[in-house]
Amino acid sequence: MAISFHPSESVFERGGPIYILAVPILLFYSLSLVGCISVSPGIPGIFLIQLQDNTGNGTRIQIGYFGVCSASNSSASALETLCKSTFGTSTAELSTGLSIPQDFLQYGLDVRDTAFPSFLPVGAVCFLLGTLAFILLKMTLRTLDDITDDENKEEKMESRADRLSSATSGLLWASVGIALTVAYASTVTLSGLAFVTGTRFSTATHVVRGTTLEALQWAIVGLSALFALGVRHMIRSNDSSDDDDQHQNPATKALSGSSTAQGVSRPRPTLQSGARSAPPPPKAPILGLPAKR
Hints:
Elements: H1 16-34, E1 49-53, E2 60-63, E3 67-71, E4 82-85, H2 91-98, H3 102-115, H4 120-146, H5 151-191, H6 193-197, E5 205-209, H7 211-265
Antiparallel strand pairs: 1-2, 1-5, 2-3, 3-4
């Protein structure tokens, strides 16, 4: 089992588009997880839910997986939006730093923790490990191709390649399953979140779903599935080609051996320098004359 490519093949024939897919997948994972942790351009707009208090000064909070942003309706620019990471920070510190009521902030964080468990980072870790396993698989197979006279080392490398191949497929498909679960659960939960918010704040709180984060999560699902299918197809196609080579090589060797045997058993006849040639037959008599003796 070896994934090898001819040097003359182009990058697209070697699976270039499949490798390129890993870049946007990792980018979308990163954007989904860093939403609302800073005021960098575009980051505050990546959130799970937005809660707006209609009873006070119109304060609204945007909540992501690991961050929260607050802003007032009087804010005229993104620079006035405050964002902080919720990782390792108490609600009291967040309330003071964001200048929003603590009970309102705590309610938003409770909704996030209850309705949106942080499973997306697990999918990101599985995808990253699967990609690393695929890289190690290619390195192992290149090393295996260079082994010519060490059978023990070749067997060890083949066993390692089999384990890496199974790990690659398992981790990549696990990331697809987790991403699909998170995206579907988020969409369904956001659709019914209006009923959840009515249990405490009723119509005093306006709920807005984070469509940007939803789109990123579904994009991760689609691209991850394409990446996993492409990698699996490359591995299976190469396995099939190796099996064909193993079945064809014995026949080729037998054919070449037969040709060699035939060539040896039937050498081209040659004249020996020391042998005497047979005398020519006597000429027939002409016009009745006796032949010379």
